[in-house]
Design a protein that fits this description.
Rossmann fold
Amino acid sequence: MTFSKHRHSRYTSLALTEDVMSCGHTACPGCGGALSLRLAVKILAPDCVFVIPACCMAVIDGLWPISALRVPLYHTAFAATASTAVGIAAGLRSQGDLKTLVVGWAGDGGTFDIGLAALSASAARNDDYLYVCYDNEAYMNTGIQQSSATPQGAWTTTTPLPQAKTRPKKDILTLMMSHTIPYIASACVAYPDDFIRKFDTARKMRGFRFIHLFSACPPGHKSLEADTIRISRLAVDTRIFPLYEVINGKFALTLNPLLHKAGEYIKLQKRFAHWTDADIEAYQIEVDKRWEFLANLNEKRNL
């Protein structure tokens, strides 16, 4: 199988030495979303404006007049990330500003569910900004309610035992591919070289760009704070969260992981504590099917 040439390289064209996101923010210990935002803003600053809806990040940044992000930030309504971002981008372009990147940064609830209509319409228009979804697989900020990003069989407060979530996780990247936008990617902070390269690629492009981030959440996933990077790496290494990108319709897997079994990932999170060995085996079959589908796409790219 052929993979992107970037998968093993050290991406050194960016000098990421200075933190833009300051200490003293209000994230939970071990928050994967905060780690992702910290790294992303180092890549994108200073010429950027962030749009953040109601979500964990709107609180993590700090309550007005305090902000940990140290770049311009606009707080917007839950469903309005895409529509607000495109409005700000249009305003900047009307003033002749082609340099400032507008970044919509929203959780899975505001992306997969509540904000999907505006997101889809914006992608269909190929509006010129970057949309980032940090995916912690539930409405974590309001009490761990299920979203359509919640995995099948996961415990949440709205899918309590014995009735865990019965439907599979929505495939947001395949949905975004249907819009034929210039850039689509998945990324994970546990693989920083891949993460950095993808954000830098998106930063330099024009049109609608979408990045999907895996975001470990100790309170919501019922995991240890110290296991955030371990869980994040296992999400990729088990092929549960494959790393790939689509540039102008051309698909490429960007990392061939050191393969681990899905159970290693599952057993670190008590939201899956009720799973039996048979449940894990059935999930492994679904993960393998999805990987085979993506691998076939990758091979077709290289024919």
